[in-house]
Amino acid sequence: MALLSKNEGMKQAELARFAGVRPSSISEVVDRLERHGLIERRRDNSDHWVFRLYLTEKGILQ
Q1: 3-class DSSP string for the chain
Q2: Is 59 a residue whose pLDDT tops 90?
Q3: Tens digit of each residue's pLDDT (9 = 90 or more) over 19-50
Q4: HSE, side-chain direction, 13 A CA sphere, residue 18
Q5: For residue 62, what pLDDT is reported?
Q6: φ and ψ at residue 39, rounded to 5 degrees
Q7: Which of 37, 14, 38, 36 is nearest to 26 (CA)?
């Protein structure tokens, strides 16, 4: 979440690379954070296959 607070709008693959983990591992973490309402996935405006990650208000307060 600290990475996202400084780099909002990252792709999931970018987050995995910054965190030094496999994309499949970060996917599980992102799913869990999304279920808890801490982050949200938004479609990229220029590429509708890509999702970008953003902290929610609840995530910012954590």
Answers
A1: CHHHHHCCCEEHHHHHHHHCCCHHHHHHHHHHHHHCCCEEEEECCCCCCCEEEEECHHHHHC
A2: yes
A3: 899 988 899 999 999 999 999 999 999 998 99
A4: 13
A5: 86
A6: -135, 165
A7: 14
Place of tokens 């693959």: 13
Q: What is the pLDDT of residue 24?
A: 87
Whole-angstrom Cα distance, residue 19 to residue 8? 14
What are 42's strand-pairing partners?
Answer: 52
Alpha-carbon gap, residue 4 to 7, rounded angstroms: 5
pTM for the model stands at 0.86
How many other CB atoms sit within 10 Å of the CB of residue 29? 16
